[in-house]
Each structure stands twice: as C-alpha cells, then as structure tokens.
Amino acid sequence: MKNTIKCVILDDELLAISYLKLLCESVEYVEVIKVFNNPRAFLEEINNIDCNLCILDIEMPGINGLQVAEQIAKKHIIFTTAYKEYAAEAFDLNVIDYVRKPIKKERLLQAFDKVWEQLEHTPNSFLEWNSNLGKSHIEINQILYIQTSEIDSRDKDVLLLDHIKITLKNINFKKLLDLLPEKEFAQINKKEIVAIRAIKAFSNNEIHLKSKPESNLSLHISDVYRNSFLEKINS
C-alpha cells in the first residue's frame, strides 16, 4: 500500500487551484490538506501544517514560487507553471518535479510517483497525532509497542523505551500501520502492535521485549497474525 501523500497547494489563480485540487483528489493515495492563493499566508502557516508535499505555482505576484521554495524546510516540492524558462532554476532547488501547465492527470501521476518513491526511501522519524498530552511528536525509534487502551478502545497506548506511556486519541490500527514504517512494526494480535527491533526473543505464541528487568514484557501472538509476523521477522 502506498504511503499517503498529504499535499498543500499554492497558486494565485483560484481556477487553477480548483482544477489542481480536483485532479489531486481523484488519486486514491493523495490527500489535499489545504490550499492557498497567497504566498505570504502560505509561508506563515506551512510549518504548522502536517503535510509532506507542497505543489507550488512559480509565477505569482510579490513572492514567486522559487522564492517560496527556498523558505520551506523538510517538504517535498512540485512546481507548476506555464513558463518553461524556469525549469533550470527550479531543479537547482532540488525539487521533486516540474509540471507544465495546462496540467494533465497522467503527467501529475508521474510526479506523484516520484514523491512516493522519496517517501518510501525516507521513512518518517516521528509519529504525529493528537494524544492525552495534546499534539504529540513521538520518536518512532523509541516505541516498544502499542496496545488498545483499556479505558477507551478507540484510543491506543504507546509504550516507549523509557516506559513513558502516551495515549493516542481516536486512531485505529490500520491508520497506525499506515503511519509507521512498514518493515519496522508488526501487528501480533487484535490489540497490539510491536516494534520489530524491540524483540529480544520469541516463540510460536509469545514475544519477549527488550525492557527493564522488573517490567518483564511479554506479548501474545495470535493465530490470525502469526504467519504475517513470521514473514516480516524473516524478511
């Protein structure tokens, strides 16, 4: 399953925004988080928006897309423009792609494929979600395992290496597995996901995790998930 591409669109023309948003939303694994028609408003908000792709028009009044791109950190970028003379300068900024207007869906899909490849080879280092502590950014390499909350089954408890517990609010395991690196986590029963690197030993029915001696963490592997767990461990 492809990682979700969460994109923000910036274009000074409202018709261009509407058309591009429609194209993006016709792609199953692309989610449009927000659109802007003002580059200054975009720059004020972008660092607080949970997205992994910015689609930027180049030719805009005041601040052009090239100048906007120079101020964006840790976001993949696709440029859109009707003017071919910007191509060399655009690629100097190490963007994912440069799509000429009028935009065709087939060409946009090619650009999305390049973004997806980058996302696959650059796994997220943080899990971001609303929790009992507010909006939380949890280091993925600190997660031991995740279990369904005993208080509310819609919530999930994340146990970290230092045995701090954080409760993620209103999230299911399917969404969690989409957010986590596929090769690093495995669901082992209906109520638990385990970090592969945290496993100290396992048998046919049980997993023992690396933890403090007094914790003695062991988890049950159910029949339904055993084969997929073993395949992941042995891959």
From TrEMBL:
The lineage of its organism: Bacteria, Pseudomonadati, Bacteroidota, Flavobacteriia, Flavobacteriales. PANTHER family: REGULATOR OF RPOS (PTHR48111), TRANSCRIPTIONAL REGULATORY PROTEIN YPDB (PTHR48111:SF17). This is Response regulator transcription factor. Gene3D superfamilies: 3.40.50.2300, LytTr DNA-binding domain. The modification 4-aspartylphosphate is found at D57. Residues 6-116 form the Response regulatory domain. PROSITE patterns: RESPONSE_REGULATORY. Keywords: DNA-binding, Phosphoprotein.
